[in-house]
Task: structure prediction
Amino acid sequence: MLSVRGLSLSVRGRPLVDGVSLDLKPGELLAVCGPNGAGKSTLLRLISGELTPTAGEIRLLDRPLGAWRPQALAQRRAVVPQSSPCDFPFRAWEVVRLGRTPHPPSAQDRDLAFDLLHAVGAGHLAERLLPQLSGGERQRVALARALAQLHGVSGPGLLLLDEPTAALDLQHQESVLSLLRRRCDQRGDAVLIILHDLNLAAAFADRALLMVDGRALIDAPPEHALTPALVEGAFGLAVRALRHPDTGRPLLVPARADAAAQTLTVP
Amino acid sequence: MTSLAPPRADRAQLIAAAALLAALTLAVSRGAVSISPAQLLAAPLDRLGLAEHAALTPAQEAVLWAIRLPRALMAVGVGGALGLAGALMQGLTRNPLADPGLLGVSSGAALGGAAATVLGGRVGALGLPVAAILGGLLTWTVVMAVARREGAAPIPTLLLCGVAVSALASSGVGLLLFMASDEQLRALTFWTLGSLSGASWGRALGVLAALGLSLAVTGRAARALNALLLGEAEAAQLGVPVEGLKLTLTVLVALLVGLSVAFSGFIGFIGLVAPPSARLLVGADQRRVLPLSALLGACLLTLADLAARTVVAPAELPVGVLTALLGAPFFLARLRAAGLGG
Result:
């Protein structure tokens, strides 16, 4: 579905993304993790075509990204940005309907928008105005818009999401990730998602790509990519690995070896 | 898609259109020579020689056809053009405080017009509007290039850029005033104040044609314009040809503001007041906001010009003074609501 080879972007001689390669097959969910400033968002903006790489190649469905017509590309690939700065008084369902921009207009677009808002747990927000929504509510509306964009296209789509759970509460984090997981399993969509929560990545992703200083440290299934040694190397923080009691997937928690000493010194 | 518009929005346009018609009727009937509504209805028949008895006196007829009607229609055209230009600029900058006057486009157009008047020699009737359009295009391009970061312009940066560019353009106008002959000086003074007294049928129809063309072009691109409100990156990801759309909008803004300034001088704040009022009535959907902004702008300027003509009759106030009197407090209130942090 998506093939990235030796992708690099340098700004004024400083490499932001440095020779990243990755493959994403239909039905796969890839979590991109790493510390702040590792180049995760830049990588996503390169893959979405918003930024132009200084080196490397991106192919979507075996065609170079630049060879796609913008409209055809928009029907196969949708992006959920980190935040949406729009402060014009759109209703939430109107924003979702804007996802239909690359498709011919249809009388069903409005109903589709309401359905998709329900699907992301934001059905009750449909008639609310965008400036009145909280950050987390906006993120769910943006996700519904991306789903509207890929709706009705035969064949798998590619979803690129930049920390879509950053402002979400625990329950909505779970429901958004399960929704994405179902898109992969049932429709064969490919999902590339930037996640700060390593445990969400471990629970839902097929693979995790750990980025440090613009480079891919490792790209492997979570149990191999999210080991205490690699995570400590990437984040500079000692962690301990547990097993999730229900799934057996990795569960990472910060090490607290000096916890007792800390409680004593805090006045 | 337009057929799916809820009735509430269509009602807003109908009411605004009715209000404009009422304002227009009022504007052509009031003044030193007053004309009754019945006489107005009969006037077209009179004109075509179909009426049995003349409904209007020769003086009334001359005033109506040669003075009031072109002036009222030019108010509709210029007001509509400024309202639409404001809405387009706000979409381009994703900033609801953008306005042709505040951001230096009107000043640039005035500089272009002044340059054509003083330096152009025999530029003909078309030289003035063309120079004004180019002047507006130049300043708007400069402001957009300097103020915008990643597709959006923060309010303080945008306004400060407008201040700087306006100051630059005004100093250019000042230099031209210094060089101008007495006759040119009279013509130039009118730019700094703003007035519809220079109205003619040609100018009124010219600006109305530009307004109609702009509404037609933006109406066809309305879906893409809506996507653009989400942000440039978002619009591009939705398959919108963003660069081409921005160029089209920039040219339309320069056309609308350039013609307005060339024909009626510096009239501020219409573009600031009309579009947010339209959004308050119908939401953000550009398919409804753009025509309604033009309608509200037209209403506003028609009524403002009526007031300018009649309040201190037989003298006349510059209408730009009145719109500023109305618009500046509105602007301050919105600035306070937006918060200077952007």
